[in-house]
Amino acid sequence: MKRPLSFALSAALVLTGTAGLGIGTAGSAAAASTVTIDLLSINDFHGRISADGVVAGAAVLAGAVNHYSALNPDTRLVSAGDNIGASTFTSFIQKDKPTIDVLNTMGLTASALGNHEFDRGRADVDGRVRTAAAFPYLAANLYDTATGSPAYQQYSISVIDGVRVGFIGAVTEQLPSLVTAGSLSGLEVRSVVPEVNAVADRLSDGDPADGEADVVVLLVHEGAATPAEASSTDASAFGRIVTGADANVDAIVSGHTHQSYAHSISVASWPTTLKRPVIQAGEYGETIGHLTLVVDGATHQPQSMAAELVPLTNPDKSPRFTPDPKVAAIVSDAEAYAAIPGSVRVGMITADLNKARQSDGSDNRGGESSLGNFVADAQLAATADIGTQIAFMNPGGMRVNLTYASTSAGDPDGNVTYSEANAVQPFASTLVALDLTGAQLAAALEQQWQPTGTGRPFLKLGVSRGFQYTYDPTAARGSRIVRMTLNGVAIGASSIYRVVANKYLADGGDNFTTFAGGTNRSDTGRIDLDSMISFFTAHPTVSPDSGQRAVGVRLAGGSASGIAPGETVTLTLSSLLFSGGEVPARTVEVLYRGSVIGRSIIDPTIVDTTDEVGRATVSAVLPGDGEVGEAALTVRVPGTGTSVEVPLRVRAAAPLAGGALTDGNAQSYSSVSVTPASAPAGTVVQVNVAGHDGRTVTIVGYGPQLPLATAVVTGGHVSVRLPAGYAPGPHPLAVYAGDGSLVGWAPVTVTSRERV
């Protein structure tokens, strides 16, 4: 509510990022004339009801609520939204009913609506979700387009030891871009700040008819991009909320960006000793926010506010709080229920889809894998309707292989069940779409080579079908990516490409910071497990793609200006094979203008921590009868689908000396003849060149060596005039292609000109 500037403050705001088991709880020495309220907060829980070591699970979360409630009965739990949606299989398979049940059981007081609450559309929120929830879902900035009225409850009031605490809800203004088309039917998303301020002012105007609150807390499903305080006060959407919220908003509990921070932000009209807490508690219930509000018992004015973040597990991953038995029972029942649909078939595979392996059989996150590429294919297919072009998958996001062999009598060879699909990607990660330039794509791929000193020196990204690149593993850091193509077209450095990746990768996880710099970011409203299941629905039987989408190439030969026909070109190749147990191909071929010019045996030895398995060196003489300028070699591994182009520049070879024309090269690339075979000097003859119509060639005469013509072969020949100075006798006429190589030659006999 509106506070007079002269009210006394008993303590300054204390705000920490450390993890305690309680700050300023009722058990501390609070004065009898004050009321201490402990608000616990979660955000972006996403149905993580089961414990996995990092995620504490719902039972431990409820145990934390029990712990604080035992210390202070004036404790309440609130949420900044995304309680459901993008959930793990245990909750996902029951449309998140187990998650709502555990939140009901632990006494959630109020929650903002998040974008993932709308994953199944407005009708699902208005019907099933709100009916199942024993707590109010709040959204001050969502309006019904038909009535012009708020579509949802804008606020709720909790009377805590005589203090009226108002909770206002709001959801990100980007909501329309975060859900599938049609999910927000009949809803208008308005700006957060004016709608929240209007509600806060009504709750603070002294009119009992408006509800009235002594303390106002904003629960907003929007958040800072980074934990830095500057990200909460900048010109971003969240920064505008923090700086634009008026003086009647006492504290802000945020979400959506899965960040961890606890800030104290000055408010212009407040005393300098009192600052507004702004908090977000990470994700998945790994951490809870803890706000302690000390309120004057008579005036109900806030005297002090403190905030901290409290992890729910110890460093050894053991729970910090005693699990609540009622919630534990709900989770246990959900896990048992999930085991039944977990055995349901979602698709079939014809062979293993594997992660990469080290030489000792352990996982190699540095190797390209059929599984990683398959997951990327599925994620691209799941988001192609919103314009994505390339998908990337981080290797650590895949936990197990999809194996062909039967695991039991009820699981035939090739069968893929829900639980098996979920085991591959157990994180239920949201898929995020974003724009990257071609230069940023290259930068992201360069970041596969991890910073010096990291535990894994190289992390190989899975990429979707149609996207390929070559790299030089010996080049300097930052310059290893040689060439990228999308559907055979070279990637342009300044062109914009729509990319999709799971949220972890999109946020710059595993040091892939370039993704975090992408623009036009959008939460697609789809999760990784859903994308795989949808892919199997569209393609009931899946075969591994045995083609490599990245190949190591180092090209040598020729000079700085290019390679001329007849010179030797050498390609040092790597990453020609997978390492996950697939049967290795034996040979690699190099083609030029569609013809094989060289082959080599592939070395299948695994190179640990890298993607260098499948190495070969191919040397070949560059054929002639081509053109100068940009050209390409093709590296192909027969039987696998691996095929990449290696650009090279062809420079012209010098014409041969007369003594180099022999019977052996008279028809190097074509049959050449002269009509007539005999003619006087100074007359025109036809040089016949088979199979070269439309090609530009150069005719060189010998004895002496002179260029006679450069012309397009038309009707199978080129007309040239014999030099007037040619002496009677045989003179070779040689045909050279655009690249300077000898096409062939034939003699013409120069006869004496008859005297009249």
CATH overall fold name of the largest domain: Purple Acid Phosphatase, chain A, domain 2
Number of strands: 41
What is the radius of gyration? 36 Å
Largest sheet: 7 strands, mixed
The general outline is elongated
What is the strand and helix layout of this fold?
Blueprint: E1 14-15, E2 34-42, H1 58-71, E3 75-79, H2 89-92, H3 97-105, E4 108-112, H4 122-132, E5 137-138, E6 142-144, E7 155-160, E8 163-171, H5 175-178, E9 187-189, H6 192-202, E10 215-221, H7 237-244, E11 251-254, E12 260-265, E13 276-281, E14 287-296, E15 302-311, H8 325-339, E16 345-349, H9 370-383, E17 390-393, E18 415-417, H10 418-424, E19 430-437, H11 438-446, E20 462-463, E21 467-471, E22 481-486, E23 489-490, E24 496-502, H12 503-506, H13 513-516, E25 519-527, H14 528-538, E26 541-542, E27 550-556, E28 568-574, E29 587-592, E30 595-601, E31 616-621, E32 629-637, E33 642-650, E34 672-675, E35 678-680, E36 684-689, E37 696-701, E38 706-712, E39 717-721, E40 729-736, E41 742-751
Parallel strand pairs: 1-15, 2-3, 3-4, 4-5, 8-10, 10-11, 11-13, 16-26, 17-24, 21-27, 35-41
Antiparallel strand pairs: 2-14, 6-9, 7-8, 12-13, 14-15, 16-18, 17-20, 19-24, 19-25, 21-22, 22-23, 27-28, 28-31, 29-30, 29-32, 32-33, 34-36, 36-39, 37-38, 37-40, 40-41
Helix pairs in contact: 1-8, 3-8, 9-14
